[in-house]
Amino acid sequence: MALAMTFDEEGEPFHRWLLENGYPELAALSDAIKGSDNATEWLMKNKYYHLVAFDAAIDNKAEARKWLERYNYPILILLADAINHKESSIKYLIDNKLDIYVVLSQKIRKALTKDSFNPYKINF
């Protein structure tokens, strides 16, 4: 839930909590989704390839989605699809009571529609 809260306007305390409580990869993922090249580079350097692929899949990069499929990350695929308004994925998350992923997808989608979103993120 802390990851989801980092996408709110007052998300800094949650970002800090992730960093201070052993989840630097989730803090970096939040920053990468928001367009930080430094965060993406950190994720790559620290071998969080699945999170880099997830970020790219959110941006509808076909190769990233294929990578997630090849390396068996179905929940990240579902989440990326839900963020991108794919009704079957949203329905699956709701029907299977995966509420945290529904909340996370909504918060990320909302953050990506704000004017502060950086469309010039690096390619996967």
Give the uncertain stretches in residue-range form.
Answer: 120-124
> What is the end-to-end distance?
26 Å
Helix count?
A: 9
SS-derived structural category: mainly alpha
Overall mean confidence score, pLDDT: 92
Q: Which bin fits the share of residues in helices?
A: 55-70%
Give a quick account of the main beta sheet: strands, pairing sense, barrel closure.
Answer: none
β-strand number: 0
Tell me the strand percentage band: under 5%
Using only C-alpha atoms, the radius of gyration works out to 14 Å
Helix-strand sequence: HHHHHHHHH
Shape: globular
Topology overview:
Blueprint lengths: L1 H4 L6 H9 L3 H10 L3 H9 L3 H10 L3 H9 L3 H10 L3 H9 L3 H14 L12
Helix pairs in contact: 2-3, 3-4, 3-5, 5-6, 5-7, 7-8, 7-9
Quick structural overview:
It is built from nine helices and no strands. By secondary structure, the protein is an all-alpha fold. The two termini are 26 Å apart.
Could you name the key traits of this structure?
124 residues, mainly alpha, 68% helix, 0% strand
Question: Could you describe the 3D structure shown?
Answer:
By secondary structure, the protein is an all-alpha fold. Helix content is 68%, strand content 0%. The protein is built from nine helices and no strands. It has helices at residues 2-5, 12-20, 24-33, 37-45, 49-58, 62-70, 74-83, 87-95, 99-112. α2 runs antiparallel to α3 (24-33), α5 (49-58) crosses α6 and α5 (49-58) runs parallel beside α7. Residues 120-124 have low confidence and may be disordered.
